């Protein structure tokens, strides 16, 4: 008698997501604000939703939070389908969307106390301390006694952020959180986002400021004309943007001639040139230049910036409305 054993069959590993949309579409009359958005927000990530004004960022966020019903599509928030699972999911979500709205004749502290009273996860005995912790965290402690109507735009943003952080959240959604803030306030927002990330919260940041997204986010989703044209880890998207070498040399013309003779693509750039590494390598480029008698002062890998990546993606989407830029980025349609 023989006994055979086999390894247990395991399902392929899937990464956990804090939020997911499938085929999301929103129409306002004859206007399509969001069209076929498939978005995944990995658990524990800081995702920057990037796009120009009118790209559909805020509409997508409002649907994700159950504030607007989609015309078509599915939404999953913290493992719960919307709208049916909103009551279970939303208490664990803090959000600042399209600027906060508070009672103008109440102070900042009084407004937060009212907000805290409606928090299902906050015990009434803890309201006072939660409010004081929140205003301190966003740098508003010295102005919490003042009436909201006298707040500047930046102070209103801070108060809205404080309301979103009254209790620990699994997901924090911030729509243009640095709007109206001075450089010091912007740095504080970055610090808060970093603290949330370190504590294990998932953060979704909507912005049209590329520098802010690049400074704070681990993942990015690029929206253009209501459609996601690319999404993924920020470092991977930047690396996929193209591999090149920046060469500093006083002999630019000689270097260009030598590289073109070797069928290596290059173009002048600042005090040197940018050399594309498609079909070649950095050592081959340096060898070609040295053999041609070109003086190479410095050679470094070219890092694609978010601004350059964003411009290329949106331009590609404009040029090829039939093929998404994410297909172009990944090397072909799937």
TrEMBL record:
Organism: Lentzea aerocolonigenes
Entry protein name: Multidrug ABC transporter ATPase
Protein family: Belongs to the ABC transporter superfamily.
Pfam families in UniProt: ABC_tran
Gene Ontology molecular-function annotations: ATP binding; ATP hydrolysis activity
Entry-linked InterPro entries: AAA+_ATPase, ABC_transporter-like_ATP-bd, ABC_transporter-like_CS, P-loop_NTPase
Residue ranges occupied by any ABC transporter domain in the UniProt entry: 19-250
Region (Disordered): 1-20
UniProt keyword annotations, A-Z: ATP-binding, Nucleotide-binding, Transport
Keyword Transport set for record: yes
Organism taxonomic ancestry: Bacteria, Bacillati, Actinomycetota, Actinomycetes, Pseudonocardiales
């Amino acid at each position: 008698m023989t006994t055979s054993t086999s390894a247990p069959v395991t399902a392929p590993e899937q990464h956990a997501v804090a939020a997911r949309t499938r085929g999301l579409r929103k129409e306002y009359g004859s206007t399509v604000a969001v069209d076929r958005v498939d978005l995944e927000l990995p658990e524990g990530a800081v995702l920057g939703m990037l796009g120009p004004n009118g790209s559909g960022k805020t509409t997508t966020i409002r649907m994700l939070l159950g504030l607007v019903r989609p015309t078509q599509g599915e939404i999953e928030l913290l493992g719960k389908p919307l709208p049916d699972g909103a009551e279970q999911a939303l208490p664990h979500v803090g959000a600042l969307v399209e600027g906060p709205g508070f009672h103008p004749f109440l102070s900042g502290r009084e407004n937060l106390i009212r907000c805290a009273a409606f928090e299902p996860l906050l015990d009434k005995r803890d309201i006072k301390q939660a409010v004081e912790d929140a205003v301190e965290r966003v740098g508003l402690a010295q102005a919490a006694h003042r009436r909201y109507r006298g707040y500047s735009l930046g102070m209103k943003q801070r108060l809205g952020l404080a309301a979103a952080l009254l209790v620990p959240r699994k997901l924090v959604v911030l729509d243009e959180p640095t709007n109206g803030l001075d450089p010091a306030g912007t740095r504080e927002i970055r610090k808060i986002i970093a603290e949330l990330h370190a504590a294990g919260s998932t953060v979704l940041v909507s912005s049209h400021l590329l520098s802010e997204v690049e400074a704070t986010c681990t993942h990015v989703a690029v929206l253009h004309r209501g459609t996601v044209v690319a999404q993924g880890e920020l470092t991977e998207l930047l690396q996929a943007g193209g591999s090149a070498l920046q060469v500093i040399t006083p002999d630019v013309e000689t270097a260009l001639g030598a590289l073109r003779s070797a069928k290596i693509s290059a173009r002048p750039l600042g005090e040197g040139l940018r050399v594309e590494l498609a079909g070649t390598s950095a050592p081959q480029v340096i060898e070609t230049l040295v053999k041609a008698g070109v003086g190479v002062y410095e050679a470094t890998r070219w890092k694609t910036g978010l601004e350059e990546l964003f411009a290329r993606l949106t331009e590609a989407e404009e040029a090829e409305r039939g093929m998404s830029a994410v297909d172009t980025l990944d090397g072909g349609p799937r």
